[in-house]
UniProtKB/TrEMBL annotation:
This is Alpha-1,4 glucan phosphorylase. Its EC number is 2.4.1.1. PROSITE patterns: PHOSPHORYLASE. It is an enzyme of class 2 (transferase). The lineage of its organism: Bacteria, Pseudomonadati, Pseudomonadota, Gammaproteobacteria, Vibrionales. The gene is malP. Its cofactor is pyridoxal 5'-phosphate.
Length: 817
């Protein structure tokens, strides 16, 4: 079934539309337009088609009257839309042909699009995959996010060090896939005070903001796969409101109003570049409230327009909070219901506590959000009152369950007492949400047992698991067309919407002809990546080498430095041991470090320095190459993932909530070397022990080692290979004439206590890598394992994740259009 049923594709009309946009939208001509403008005009013509479907979906009575999910996320890492939408529309060949006739290669035009990098990493990309799946399966959905002017910074390397530059993702001409919805704009308040009055003896409290900011929505179309459904991803942009006749301004509160003016335009200026680390900055809280309030307002507007009453809100709308970042939506809904709709507390809480669900993405203490009570008090005085009251009533429940147990109250309280009182956003979420989920089985188990054990006891049905997933449309069909075609030849072409069907490919795992075809596709993808690296980085690669890939944000817990130590051990052996042999290997890295994360930047520097030396060393004779791809982003992932042989998923056990790159790589036939962490555990369950390389301490092993007192020096002294590898960082091998320039990592591992147990897992990691080296030498053995990885990834389709959310949490029905 193709979407072209409602709007049949007409090549001539499409070409005319492209030319019209060249002229009218971009003020250029067929003769003089650059390839970039051709891409813009083509995308505009496509976007027009999807916008019609967006409006039709929005106005479809069955959609209006159905229960919807509202996915609230400060990040949506959608990646380029044009190529993916061609796939979803089922028009790849048609538009390829149409553009060919106009003298342009579609693949070249698609390369003109900049990535909208409106997210940091896993959490933002997950939101994008989820939107894709909701549209594919036609569960009514609105995504709510922020329209940052600058996305995640662009990364370059200067003298091997990371440099950051702003990412003006829309380009000067504007992004062709978005449309402003001025009729849906709103005003959002900040600061000010709370007025109290008594009406018929009842206390009524009203927030009088000291500043207002306009929220302008921009809609991006989320195109359902081969159906006619298009849902909006609605991104809010902050604009200052003029004229600035604000109450606090008039009251002589001149400074605050002045201050406010400065902030208004800045609220959605830039995405915070921290990943798994929170910093309690005022502007970040302003972003969060701006996002929550605008989204909440829009949800209630839609609910009312559908003719439903507020008491019915939980029956028709569910709100999924992507981590704690949009938590302030909970007190915001309470404020609206009580202060604007005059509802008593119990009625308002009855609605509120059946509306929100919360996804936790991390156990790292430094990533759990808590805000200064004084900051919330100043920025959102009425919300602070409501948070106190939520907490007061909640603590009554706690003391009813555990009478007299003060320590339970302290642990569970939304307010952390102390010199600076703090609001714990995760606690507020668990109290206010009807469902709380972790993102992989192991992670959810740790959420229950370690993060929220007392909440779990108090509310035994609230905590649950929904294992993450990835969209097979972007992460196989679109990014790996050769493998997709090979699969479709064998099992038909329904698998992109029914990924469990891939299991049928397992029947061919022993078939030597299929093995050859599979490995030929892999080789072609490796060649494509090698060409890219040659062109953009000037490094020549051998496509017969093992392509070993670690692509993810740079973080100590993800342990890029463990991978680095292994590279150093290979270098050491190649240089010092004539009898040492290995299959040639290329180590690929792609990773951005948060700009303020010192050690992460030092690790990037060290890997780049090692690459410089190793790649130029004739004695290494191409056994070893190191490629750190700059500015890793979704469009780079689309080239690297199909070309990978080995997928590095080597976090300290218990630290990576799920991972989703692990799923993308395995789906594309890479074998995982990984710890028993996050979704690796479930990947192993699916593919079986023979088809994955598991190493290192598991969660219990980590706990035990720490309990017994871990001393990294013991590992260092006991393992000569580890010692030799680490010592390379302290010398001048990679920084001639400047010994010690790579010492930072060495120091952290040896004298900084090695917080992520890199040295403890080193020996086991080396063993796993040696098994990989051994197995790869027999290409049939390897091919079978790779095929089975592709075949057995069905579980990790985000369609399955969304079905889990729908059945267990959201309770939605699809509206098939
Ligand atoms: C918080 C406060 C202030 C500024 C920034 C932040 C912030 C921003 C982004 C905190 C965390 C993030 C992102 C977290 C993230 O990406 N987590 C990952 O989520 C994936 C999807 O569930 C998991 O697969 C990964 O394991 C997890 O690390």
């Amino acid at each position: 079934m193709k979407p072209t049923q409602t709007h049949p594709f007409d090549k001539k009309l499409f070409q005319d539309n492209v030319k019209r946009h060249l002229n009218v939208t971009y003020a250029t001509t067929v003769e003089s337009a650059s390839p970039h403008v051709w891409y813009l005009a083509m995308a505009k013509a496509m976007a027009e088609m999807t916008m019609l479907n967006l409006l039709e979906t929005e106005q479809d009575e069955r959609v209006i009257k159905a229960k919807s999910v509202n996915y609230l996320s400060l990040e949506f890492l959608i990646g380029r839309l044009t190529g993916n939408n061609l796939i979803s529309l089922g028009l790849y060949d048609e538009i390829n042909d149409a553009m060919q006739e106009l003298g342009h290669s579609l693949t070249d035009l698609l390369e003109e699009e900049r990535d909208p990098s409106l997210g940091n990493g896993g959490l933002g990309r997950l939101a994008a995959c989820f939107m894709d799946s909701c549209a594919a399966m036609e569960y009514p959905t609105v995504g709510y996010g922020l329209h940052y002017e600058y996305g995640l910074f662009k990364q370059s390397f200067k003298d091997c060090q990371q440099k950051e530059a702003p990412d003006a993702w829309q380009g000067i001409e504007g992004y062709p896939w978005e449309v402003a919805r001025p009729e849906l704009k709103q005003d959002i308040g900040f600061y000010g005070h709370v007025d109290v009055e008594y009406i018929d003896g009842e206390e009524r409290r009203t927030w009088v903001p000291g500043m207002k900011v306009q929220a302008m929505p921009w809609d991006l179309p989320i195109v359902g796969y081969e159906n006619n459904t298009v849902y909006p991803l609605r991104l809010w942009e902050a604009r200052a409101i003029a004229p600035f006749s604000l109450e606090s301004f008039n009251n002589g509160n001149y400074f605050e109003a002045q201050h406010a003016l400065i902030d208004a335009d800045n609220i959605t200026k830039v995405l915070y570049p921290n990943d798994n680390h929170e910093k309690g900055k005022t502007l970040r809280l302003m972003q969060q409230y701006f996002h929550s309030a605008a989204s909440m307002g829009d949800i209630l507007r839609r609910h009312k327009a559908a003719g439903f009453s507020l008491d019915e809100l939980p029956d028709y709308e569910t709100i999924q909070l992507n981590d704690t970042h949009p938590t302030i939506a909970i007190p915001e809904l309470m404020r609206i219901l009580m202060d604007e709709q005059a509802m008593p507390w119990d009625q308002a809480w009855g609605i509120c506590s059946r509306t929100f669900a919360y996804t936790n993405h991390t156990l790292l203490p430094e990533a759990l959000e808590s805000w200064d009570e004084s900051l919330i008090q100043r920025l959102l005085p009425r919300h602070m009152e409501i948070i106190y009251e939520i907490n007061r009533r909640f603590l009554l429940e706690v003391s009813a369950k555990w009478p007299g147990d003060v320590s339970k109250q302290q642990k569970l309280s939304v307010i952390q007492e102390g010199f600076h009182r703090m609001v714990r956003m995760a606690n507020l979420c668990v109290v206010g949400a009807y469902a709380v989920n972790g993102v992989a089985a192991l992670h959810s188990d740790l959420v229950k047992r370690h993060l929220f054990p007392d909440f779990h006891e108090l509310y035994p049905d609230r905590l649950t698991n929904v294992t993450n997933g990835i969209t097979p449309r972007r992460w196989l069909k679109f990014c790996n067309p050769d493998l997709s075609n090979l699969i479709s030849e064998k099992i038909g072409d329904e698998w992109p919407a029914h990924l469990e069907q891939l299991e049928k490919i397992a029947d061919y795992a022993d078939d030597s002809e299929f093995q050859e075809q599979f490995m030929a596709v892999k080789k072609a993808n490796k060649q494509r990546l090698a060409d890219w690296v040659q062109e953009h980085m000037g490094i020549e690669l051998n496509p017969d080498a093992i392509f070993d890939v670690q692509i993810k944000r740079l973080h100590e817990y993800k342990r890029q430095h463990l991978n680095m130590l292994y590279m150093l051990s290979l270098y050491h052996r190649l240089k010092t041991d004539d009898s040492f042999d290995m299959h040639p290997r290329v180590f690929f890295f792609g990773a951005k470090a948060a700009p303020g994360y010192y050690l992460a930047k030092e690790i990037i520097y060290a890997i780049n320095k090692i690459a410089e030396t190793v790649n130029a060393d004739p004695q290494i004779n191409d056994k070893l190459k190191v490629v750190f791809i700059p500015d890793y982003r979704v469009s780079i992932a689309e080239i690297v993932i199909p070309a990978a042989d080995v997928s590095e998923q080597i976090s300290t056990a218990g630290k990576e909530a799920s991972g989703t790159g692990n799923m993308k790589l395995a789906l594309n036939g890479a074998l995982t070397v990984g710890t028993m962490d996050g979704a690796n555990v479930e990947i192993r369950e699916e593919v079986g022990d023979d088809n994955i390389y598991i190493f290192g301490l598991d969660v219990d092993g980590v706990d035990e080692l720490r309990a017994n007192g871990y001393n990294p020096y013991d590992c260092y002294q006991a393992d000569p290979l580890l010692k030799a590898s680490l010592d390379l960082l302290a010398g001048e091998t990679f920084t001639p004439g400047e010994p010690g320039k790579l010492r930072a990592t060495y120091e952290s591992l040896l004298n900084g206590g090695d917080p992520y147990l890199v040295l403890a897992d080193f020996a086991s990691y080396v063993q796993a890598q040696e098994a990989i080296d051994h197995d790869y030498r027999d290409i049939q053995v390897w091919a079978k394992k790779a095929i089975l990885n592709t075949a057995l990834m069905g579980k990790f389709s985000s369609d399955r994740s969304i079905r889990d959310y729908v059945n267990r949490i959201w309770k939605l029905k699809p509206v098939k259009r």
